[in-house]
Amino acid sequence: MREKNRQKHQARRDVEADQKFDGKAELKGRSFLYVGGRDCQVAHLRQIASSYGANLIHHDGGLREAVSRIDNVLPSVDCVFCPIDCISHDACIRVKTGCKKWEKAFVPLRNGSKSSFERALQSMSQGDNVQ
Questions:
Q1: pTM of the entire structure?
Q2: Res 24: pLDDT
Q3: Where would you tag: which of 74, 87, 91, 128 has the fewest CB atoms within 10 A of its CB?
Q4: What is the DSSP letter of 39?
Q5: Which of 54, 7, 15 is nearest to 34 (CA)?
């Protein structure tokens, strides 16, 4: 009986792992632009995106990089994330305008936390409509 329960639980874990992998696989090869946020978290954000098989490009939102660089990067990405608490108004307006022009998904994040970014990626990987 114990062996049967153990096998049942193992099968359930295998199915859950497959579902988790499948969701992450849906983002494989996609490119995302993250505008704004905190410089100290960029490496962590890239690691999170990488765990989904995606590439993350970061723009600081105009602190050190020219805001006009956003216009050059937008055509090559699939989606743009902006933490609304850590971005200049100019950069945010430029991103929103560029996303409309290039028909790219725009995902405003509640804040610049790693968990906020990961929740957005999870939502995208599960096929939820973001924009």
A1: 0.78
A2: 67
A3: 128
A4: G
A5: 54
Tokens, residue 1: 């009986």
Give me the amino acid identity at 33. Answer: L
Tokens 């090869």 correspond to: 29
In whole angstroms, what is the distance from residue 62 CA to residue 49 CA?
A: 22
Asked if residue 53 lies in contact with residue 100, where contact means CB atoms within 8 angstroms, the answer is no
* Tens-digit pLDDT profile for residues 22-52: 556 689 999 999 999 999 999 999 999 999 9
Contact 87, 80 (CB under 8 A): no
Bridge partners, 55 (sequence order): 31
3-state secondary structure of 128: coil
Q: Which residues contact 107 (CB under 8 A, 6 or more apart)?
A: 79, 80, 81, 82, 120, 124, 130, 131
- DSSP assignment of 78-116: SEEEEETTSS-HHHHHHHHHHHHHHT-EEEEESSS-HHH
